Amino acid sequence: MGIRKIAQIAGVSVSTVSRVLNGTKPVSDDLRERVEQAIQDVGYVPDYVARSMVLKKSFTVGVIMPNTSELYHQAIFYSIEKVLDQYGYKALLCLVKDPDDAQHQNNESGYLEVLVKSRTDGIIMMHESSRPEIYSRLHDNTIPMVQCNIDIRNIGYPQVRIDDFAAAYDGTSYLLGLGHTNIGVISTVSYSMAEKRIGGYRKALADHGIQFDKHRIIYSEDGPAYTRVSFGAGKAAMRQLLDTTKGVTAVFVMSDEMAVGAFQAVREAGLSIPHDISILGFDGIELGAFTNPQLTSIEQPIGQLGTIAAKKLMAMISGNTIEQDEILRYQLRVRSSCRNIS
């Protein structure tokens, strides 16, 4: 049973069937579903090994991301998968464990070794490595790579991200505009993005004539890195902030998931949101609309981050010239977890 019969059953052209099987060009969801249903109906089994040999492609993309419970990263991965599927590619998910743990120091290198040996066609990097040799290894093997939501300079790979410094500056300015001058921060120490967000926070304070106090920043340092952006980490950090810092009226939590944990710590302390403490999150995940009160947050274009990164990588694999970096727009999603005290 050949592709001509599949095309006849699906009511499409032979070239459309070929595009679905070979991933040479994107195909609409409707056409793809019709072709895949016809393939299933006739029991056709493509020879992927032969296809890879002829086209000199593996039709796989490695997606390297931190091994966290973050809903944020999961949402980005979903959007990446959706684009790859349109091109006939499959994602090989590589979850990098805690780089500070001696047991997992070679975790990144191990994944990279597998991806290189399996001749993956490209990599989307969502994990920020502290080891420069990781990136030079990719250069040596001429594997295309796109940085998604990370900002590693001078390695020659394109980026898709937001301006974290500006986003944190705007978030802090929003709280200052509501009359809050004693603003705490809950952050993670794992990535340079955290440093940029702290930088934006400090700049906003300075521009409003408010002295920076390092004691108002609590880092979610407990446990391995992959648990530092979680409900539990946010709850523990908020408890510490309430125990050690007096007079804080607002807290800027650099992850919505941690912000949800912070909500619980505030309530367990006998306080209310936003009457006693305003909470501002960061990321804009769907969960923020279901908290009580609903979470005000810096909303990243989560779907766009994954979609653009995947399309950029597909263009690189095809040998097309691409725009090096894309800095996407964020927005302040005002809900009800912050109040005006001025």
UniProtKB/TrEMBL annotation:
Coiled-coil blocks: none
One annotated GO molecular function: transcription cis-regulatory region binding
Alphabetical list of PANTHER family matching this protein: HTH-TYPE TRANSCRIPTIONAL REGULATOR GALS, LACI-RELATED TRANSCRIPTIONAL REPRESSOR
Record-annotated HTH lacI-type domain positions: 1-55
Keywords of the record: DNA-binding, Transcription, Transcription regulation
Species the sequence originates in: Sediminispirochaeta smaragdinae (strain DSM 11293 / JCM 15392 / SEBR 4228)
Organism classification: Bacteria, Pseudomonadati, Spirochaetota, Spirochaetia, Spirochaetales
Protein name, per record: Transcriptional regulator, LacI family
Domain of life assignment: Bacteria
InterPro entries: HTH_LacI, LacI/GalR-like_sensor, Lambda_DNA-bd_dom_sf, Peripla_BP_I
Keyword presence, Ligase: no
Presence of the UniProt keyword Transcription in the record: yes
